[in-house]
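Lesson 9: reading folded outputs for more than one chain in a single document. The general rule is that every protein is listed as its sequence immediately followed by its structure tokens, and records are never interleaved. Here is the first one.
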Amino acid sequence: MWFWFAVIALLCWSGSDLFSKIGCQDASDKYSHLKMVMAVGLVMGLHAAYEVFVAGVEINAGVILTYLPVSALYILSMAIGYLGLRYIELSISSPICNSSGAIVAILIFATQGIGELPPAALAAVACVCVGVVALGITEAREDPELRKARQDACNHHYAKSWIAILIPIIYCLLDALGTFADAKVLETLNEDSANVAYELTFLAVGIVCAIYVLGVKKQSLLPKQEAPKYVGAVCETAGQFAYIYALADTEHAALSAPIISAYCVASVLWSRIFLKEKLSFKHYGSILIVVAGIVILGILDI
């Protein structure tokens, strides 16, 4: 079953990328990222209720508080990632966001040393770093007329800005810090309880966002605009569920990890098919370098 859970995680997380992009790309709605947090919080809250009341997962205030720093890093990274979807193509954003594994590896190198890590691990980290830098340079130096010409096909234009690249990089850094902290905290917590604590914290943040967006800012929710957000939220939660079970089969973790880590490849494919995004050859070359590094890291299961 590990294989099917890995494939489900890949499809769900790439689907979350796609529908989150559709739900957050409207530049005229400056609260779209907060509405996305509301959607994910609601769906994760419902799943947490199932885990507690049906599956019997134990949860208490101590677990929630212990896991709170990790939850905060993950939730903040996702909110920033949703914000960035207004300013940059999904096919560029997703590979950068998914580069957090390389940052985790760098943190491990910095705190534990290189040790006996194979040269392939170092090469993979270098690939991701070089690819992300190359993407940034390509975005900054692209001719405005060429940018406009290739973006005409999808009827959605993005201004050339370092902020557009910086936002997914910030997501990547925060997510990496969350993953690094996660490994430390899970030494003392049950994984199922920690996941429920994360979902309940996300629910609380979603409620706060709802109070701000709906109560303070008096924003309305239009079903046509909000539906993709909730589809994306369901995909995100389902992907997390499948991911846990895929990696729970420790004998096949070295096989499931690279399958799951390649979900950004599917995200790029969906953005090309459904969003009609077109990139230059330099963009695709840089993305290929990033994806190669991510897949190698997945195979090595760092």
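And here is the second record, again sequence then tokens.
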Amino acid sequence: MQDNRHHPFRDSHQDREAATHIPDTPQTRAPSYALAFADEDFMCRPELRPVRLQLELLKPEMLMNEAGINSTIVLFGGARIPAPANKDSARTQTLADLSKYYDEARRFSQMMTERSLKSGGTEDVIVTGGGPGVMEAGNRGALDAGGQSIGLNIVLPHEQAPNEYVTPDLCFNFHYFAIRKMHFLMRASAVCVFPGGFGTLDEMFEALTLIQTGRMAQVPFLLFGQSFWEKIINWNALSDAGTISAEDLKLFRFVETAEEAVEALDNWDGKGEKRGLIPGR
């Protein structure tokens, strides 16, 4: 956001530009002479990690505030799940079968975005990890509805570009997984998890743990694909062993279709009381 306040000092943009036109001397070529905030090598030093963490928290927060994003619906899910039209290219038959959830994620995002647009398009905005698979489907559904959506990408060796359906001005890139996870949940009014791998499991259990321990409000939490989730996680065994309580199994609900998900959100006990991470904790 441009600072329109009148003050007598030169701003940082002016000095950064002026510093590119200084005489070329041994002194001006020395790394020590570079403006600290414009010195990439300096900003990447280990001692500056706290500053980089702060910047990754601030930049998306400020830009989402400026865009008026009040609340989000979080979509987690596998990057390897193909669109049904491409399921023949899936590396396993299971992935090909899971392609139906690409369509469910797309339809669910479209339905929720259409609702959001009726109230200005700043509530329940779809947010994904910005990559392929289920993430792409989520952003694509929002675009189908004519709305905006958020992509929270992270620099990975094998996945660099965000999917083409993310709203460009709401497309962010992260270095720190921890800060990215905070942005997923800070505005969350609901969390929807589709079948996926390590990343999806990590995000799901992180969010469930925050809710279980009271560090996050009990927002609606939906797992798409009951047979998938019950095959890879023995939820009842955790409860029977006493490592979680029976009440913890009520923190989430299984759904299969976009319509079931919308109905579950509409009928969730306590929906709308509070959202996201608990302030000040």
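What the second record shows: The CA atoms of residues 16 and 38 lie 7 Å apart.
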